[in-house]
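Minimal example, chain plus NM2.
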Amino acid sequence: MAQSILDLIPETCTGTLTITEHLNFWGGKRVKPLHETNVEPVFEPATGHVLCQMVPCGAEEVDEAIKSAYGAYKKWSKLAGTERARVMLEAARIIRERREKIAKLEVINNGKSITEALVDIDIAWESIEYYAGLASTLSGQHVQLPGGAFAYTRREPLGVCVGIGAWNYPFQIASWKAAPALACGNAMVFKPSPMTPVTAVILAEIFKEAGAPDGLFCVVQGGAETGSLLCHHPMVAKVSFTGSVPTGKKVMEMSSKGVKQVTLELGGKSPLIIFKDCELENAVKGALMANFLTQGQVCCNGTRVYVQREIMPQFLDEVVKRTKAIRLGDPMLDDTNMGALISKPHLEKVLGFVDQAKKQGAKVLCGGEPFTPTDPKLKGGYFMSPCVLDNCRDDMTCVKEEIFGPVMSVMPFDTEEEVLQRANNTTFGLASGVFTRDISRAHRVAANLEAGTCFINNYNISPVQVPFGGYKMSGFGRENGEVTIEYYSQLKTVVVEMGDVESLF
Ligand SMILES: NC(=O)C1=CN([C@@H]2O[C@H](COP(=O)(O)OP(=O)(O)OC[C@H]3O[C@@H](n4cnc5c(N)ncnc54)[C@H](O)[C@@H]3O)[C@@H](O)[C@H]2O)C=CC1
Ligand SMILES: C[N+](C)(C)CCCC(=O)O
């Protein structure tokens, strides 16, 4: 097999890696782009160094990749669940073995800290391992009918599934989509975000090495145009999308033309409610976890922090102290705990939200400014200091819109009833959180929050065994957990007559 992209990674590598290898993958190998049109440079967020060029796939290439996946689906879907599990477990083992190199590549392409990237890679192989375990449990039902007749159901795959990913968790998103799809006997064509094209192809190489048939997990590079070709292709049975609400709507609309199933993992503006009876230190740590992972670029972040008025001063003191202590810098270093935002325009957009918040009356307690690390090689990076906003009101833009950056908006509340009404007053519904020591209140609040996930006394943990997905405009369908099997398979009913046909004619 050709050299893996992973072999290119030197020991210490911020600002030095340039990738010229092809980043498309189908038919069991990396594929050279057919045309070099609409090429986009891909930047390393921590340095501004050009990491590689993203060459989008056109109609012919998308068609080739989908046909390659279809060929693999024909073989893979005939295997028993235990046979598919064996390949997937081997893939999970290889990822685990190479976790550090994959994580480094993720850091270079995404800008998040190595500590976080390692967790992401671990969650990725855990997901593949988990669905490998479920692959052999897929089964149908047997139903007895009158006269000795009976029926049974078979859980069958859908066919070729498309995955479209965002840039915040590139390898993890690819794995979260591939794992349940492959476990059920489907093949997948995955399109990463044009800003983070490099790690999905590693996953493709690893599935191949683990023994998957050629074409089982394909990667096509590109942006909106390539994504739309995938959604319209007649041989695609399902599209699973992670990204923004406006693009999610388009994906749903395009997929509807071919009556394709869709899973939408969209944005959020999740509430985190902190009651005065909470364990304060944990609540503060939870608020940081809810806002500052991956430089705040996380769809399920709890960015509307509602704090019961009586404990507001203590909460703010502590949260600001801890936010100021966040170490920004070279994301490749173990003691850095915040890296760079994904791109210069995105950094400017996030800083723009902070400016607007100030104009609307919010008070910046810390951060919210461009940050230049002392290391000269990081001078061109897209860093900003994590920000805590006080004096926020529900009608401010920073409280209503998804910022997708390290900006926490804090608001006081008085009663449970009031805070629930305010927390639910949004079109989003991805996640939510509550800190309290009152067990009845915790479960009552969880039951009343309109969101796909509610964290009690923690935030942003994502075990692969539990379903993840949105309410309202944050999307539908789920990732992770047993239920996701339903989103990547369909039921066939087989009805068996044991006697003579009683015809009505
Ligand atoms: N829910 C989440 O995890 C994420 C939410 N977002 C939100 O989206 C905002 C913009 O980020 P983007 O990466 O630009 O998100 P986006 O929604 O524009 O892109 C997500 C993916 O969809 C693809 N895409 C774009 N247009 C398409 C089309 N017409 N048909 C098919 N595929 C298409 C993109 O190439 C990318 O792979 C962020 O600022 C944030 O608010 C972004 C990343 C992740
Ligand atoms: C891993 N987790 C829960 C922090 C985030 C996953 C969802 C996303 O893609 O933003």
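Residues 371 and 384 are 5 Å apart (CA to CA). The chain has a mean pLDDT of 97.
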